[in-house]
Amino acid sequence: MEYEIKTLGKFRYVEEGEGEPLVLLHGLFGALSNFMDLVDHFKKTHKVIIPILPLYDLSLLETSVSGLQRHFTKFVEAKGLKKMHLLGNSLGGHIALVYTLKHQDMLSSLILTGSSGLFENGMGETYPKRGDYEFIRKKTELTFYDPKIATKELVDEVYGIVNNRLKVIKIIALAKSAIRHNLGEELREITVPTCLIWGQNDTITPPMVAEEFHKLLPASELHWIDKCGHAAMMEVPGEFNVILTDFLSRHKNPA
User: Fold this and answer.
1) How do residues 158-175 score in pLDDT, each as one tens digit?
2) Cα separation of 115 and 136, whole Å?
3) Where are the transmembrane segments (predicted)?
């Protein structure tokens, strides 16, 4: 299903359903399609909002984890959101963590899946020469436990991004920023109920990353999904949604 992209000033976003706000932050190569099953499931019980992060539209100086967090903060203010359930995948998880450290009072809960912020394996040290489709296909397949999830449509999307010189510069800037903006002991300050949902076979943010997050985040619970890679909500949506439904039911906003 195609969702309508709404605008509010300079912000673009998807909004479906009614109820407590469940806000989803996508990753570096994240597309709206990554969250399709999740939106279809939770729009029946929540107001599901996906802000489209301006990964390639900020100035080079602002193209950073902090710059995207500032953009998201302004979006939250513009929408008048509060008491959100905030979910981030990959780079989106990193942005969610930086936001949470500054605005814990705005959240009812935090959900991280394949989040960066401690350690991640990216595309590698260097990007391939433009036009190396096979390299991009293999790298995209590594995101998943089942390489068949990396459809031609998805590979074409990533290929289109890395074939754009300006976008590649922005991707490298964001990847370097994520490595520089490494979180650690400060995560102990986050007391918001946190749900970690992790693919047991994630090679980008491996299981040890989830265990470290679990150790550092005092109010966290960790759930594993077997035979699953870096984008659990996309690869194993049924199991992911069951875990998240249970977690959200235990952390409803007080009436």
Assistant:
1) 888 888 888 888 888 888
2) 21
3) none
DSSP-derived secondary structure letter, 192: S
Spatial separation of the C-alpha atoms in residues 244 and 195, rounded to whole Å: 8
Can you read off the two tokens belonging to residue 37?
Answer: 């099953």
Answer whether residue 26 is part of any domain: yes
Assigned domain for 149 exists: yes
Q: What is the pLDDT of residue 27?
A: 87
Q: Kindly report the CA angle at 65 between 115 and 170, in degrees rounded to 5? A: 105
Alpha helices (H) in 26-106, listed in sequence order: 36-42, 65-79, 91-102
- 6: enclosing H helix or E strand: strand 6-8
Distance CA 112, CA 233 (A): 11
Residues 6+ apart with CB under 8 A from 146: 227, 229, 235
Non-local CB neighbours of 143 within 8 Å, separated by 6+ positions: 149, 150, 204, 229, 230, 231
Instruction: Tell me the torsion sign for CA atoms 40, 42, 232, 163.
Output: positive
Whole domain around residue 225: which residue ranges?
A: 6-250
